[in-house]
Design goal:
The protein is mainly α. 65% of the residues lie in helices and 4% in strands.
């Protein structure tokens, strides 16, 4: 027994020596249980939705199918009551959030400490459960991912991990939640990397992929697993010609210009409803009532749009029906999200792309462009291209659609259409779908502005110069007439040859040393730090951190070091603040 314990201890020491925290290997190990926990959290929320639906409607399943078997007044009352209950829960959670809490996983990863509040998250998840089970036009993925991230956050808090490691664990939890919801482990890792973390690098991708794969494997082992969107054998796609590819590129332009409009409508709904100043229960109750009214006309507007997308893939629908569902679905989604319902807009966004792809095919047919045989392909490509344009994450969108459909035939037109849509959308969009993406874009814009701002842009002239032949007495008179701490000595060619510090001159006065007629160069420093006109401002900031003065001289980069002026610390900090 003793030998066994000794062997275990030696193995732990050996493992600790090789799996150093700074190398990131521990994150790879922890990604496994995080992926498993994320899948279980997703399954638990999905089962909770079905239980709630069974209690409300005496049956569970797709909201659209449930609504078709309900009387009109049930479609009206249930979303309203569900909205009121969701609002009451949301009001309760808002009273528990402090100024430093970051209840959303994106904020916890990007600007927080990786700690997601437990009670607030659970209450908000119950609010989402109430909205989703009653038919609100929002996605299920939001609370699912949030719960998966919470599980990862709790694991990170169980040990004294560094801040960056806790954030990584929460990111792994989010990736696991998305993989569980959409059966797309690779795209889930890229979603977190592109949208939340803002970069796709090997050190970050490895644990994200592991947690996503583990979550997906866990879901596959559970009963009832199937890919979200299935293409059947009769949907086989023939070879595409150059004209067909041009049509996909044109679809990318349409979707890229439509995505900003869609996002603007969602933002408009939030702004108008928030301006009304209604409390959460009333706002969500009114939102549920509006969705209920719409569902009386078109029950297909209820839920996240998943079943309608599958219907568009499996069998064609008339253009008038698709147009009506699209318009009312966008309105219902804008009302649901605008009223404050907790949920996602990922799946509704996929629905909008699918509907626009179907309508694009119908319009081309009316214009005698024969692409009807590729209708299913245009629907699927529309899903991915519109998602990439709205989220500004084209790589994630391409992988997401490929993994969800498990059809390689879609890749070429999907890549072309998504990239075109992304470029068009980014050229006009002012606010991306996710705030985390907006913050990343702002940081990148700040970095670009900082790189473009040079020392020459904040350079000023100065009177704190003397000739290199000046005396100590002349330097003293200049110190007395100004408030500067340094005087720069220049030769006849205006080259910087030295610098006299006020502290050195004062020390001569205190010590009673008379050097009045002596050359000032005798007390000058000749190894002073300098800046160059083409230096970036952050290089100047680093120089000031090593220099106690309020100003630094600027000279030409050539060997002659011609004196050009000075940069003050105040001007530098003011410039940096204006960039931020």
């Amino acid at each position: 027994m003793t030998n066994t314990l000794t062997t275990i201890q030696k193995f732990r020491l050996w493992l600790a020596e090789r799996l150093r925290p700074e190398d990131g290997y521990w994150a790879l190990l922890w990604a496994v249980p995080i992926g498993f926990a994320g899948a279980l959290a997703t399954v638990a929320f999905r089962e909770a939705i079905e239980i709630a639906q069974a209690l409300i409607f005496s049956r569970s399943g797709d909201p659209v199918e449930i609504a078709r078997h309900c009387a009109w007044y049930i479609r009206l009352l249930v979303p309203t009551a569900g909205g009121v209950m969701a609002g009451a829960l949301l009001w309760t959670s808002s009273r528990r959030v402090s100024g430093i809490d970051h209840p959303e996983y994106m904020e916890a990863i990007t600007i927080g400490d990786g700690k997601i509040p437990v009670s607030v998250t659970l209450i908000r998840s119950l609010s989402a459960l109430s909205s989703i089970a009653s038919g609100s036009s929002i996605g299920r993925e939001g609370p699912m991912v949030q719960l998966a991230a919470l599980a990862a956050s709790l694991m990170g808090r169980a040990r004294s991990w560094p801040l960056v490691d806790v954030r990584t664990m929460v990111a792994c939890g989010a990736a696991a939640g998305i993989a569980s919801a959409y059966s797309a482990p690779i795209a889930s890792a890229f979603f977190v990397a592109e949208i939340v973390l803002g970069s796709v690098v090997a050190e970050r991708m490895a644990p994200l992929i592991i947690s996503s794969v583990v979550a997906n494997l866990t879901m596959r082992m559970l009963p009832g697993y199937h890919p979200p969107y299935m293409l059947h054998a009769e949907d086989a796609i023939n070879a595409l010609g150059p004209l067909d590819m041009m049509m996909f590129a044109a679809l990318g332009v349409v979707l890229g210009l439509s995505a900003p409009l869609y996002l603007a409508l969602l933002q408009f709904g939030k702004k108008r409803i928030s301006e009304m100043g209604m409390p959460y229960p009333l706002a969500l109750g009114v939102g549920g009532l509006c969705v209920g009214i719409i569902s009386i006309i078109l029950p297909e507007t209820l839920g996240n749009g998943y079943s309608v997308v599958n219907d568009l893939i499996r069998q064609p629908a008339g253009w008038s029906f698709v147009t009506a569902v699209l318009i009312f679905k966008v309105i219902a989604t804008a009302i649901s999200t605008g009223s404050g319902a907790v949920g996602g807009v990922f799946t509704p966004t996929i629905f909008v792309g699918a509907a626009l792809g179907a309508l694009y095919t119908d319009l081309a047919t009316l214009l005698h462009v024969d692409i009807g045989q590729f209708r299913v392909l245009f629907v699927i490509v529309g899903m991915g291209a519109f998602l990439g344009a709205a989220t500004q994450a084209p790589l994630m969108a391409i992988l997401m659609i490929f993994e969800m459909t498990l059809n390689y035939e879609v890749m070429l037109p999907l890549m072309l259409c998504t990239v075109v849509a992304f470029v068009c959308s980014r050229s006009v969009v002012t606010r991306p779908m996710y705030d985390a993406t907006r913050r990343i874009n702002e940081k990148r814009a700040l970095a670009d502005r900082a790189r473009r701002t040079r020392v020459r842009d904040i350079l000023t002239s100065t009177r704190q110069t003397l000739s290199s032949t000046a005396t100590v007495e002349e330097a003293g008179r200049l110190f007395l007439s100004t408030t500067v701490k340094y005087i720069y000595l220049l030769d006849n060619a205006e080259q910087l040859v030295g610098c006299i510090a006020l502290s050195d001159y004062n020390q001569l006065v205190v010590d009673g040393i008379d050097m009045g007629r002596q050359p000032a160069s005798l007390i000058a420093h000749h190894d002073i730090p300098v800046l160059y006109p083409d230096d970036e401002i952050f290089r100047a900031l680093q120089a000031f951190l090593r220099h106690e003065g309020e100003r630094l001289p600027v000279v030409c980069r050539s060997g002659k070091k011609k004196f050009l002026g000075v940069v003050s610390k105040a001007d530098l900090l003011s410039t940096i603040e204006s960039l931020v």
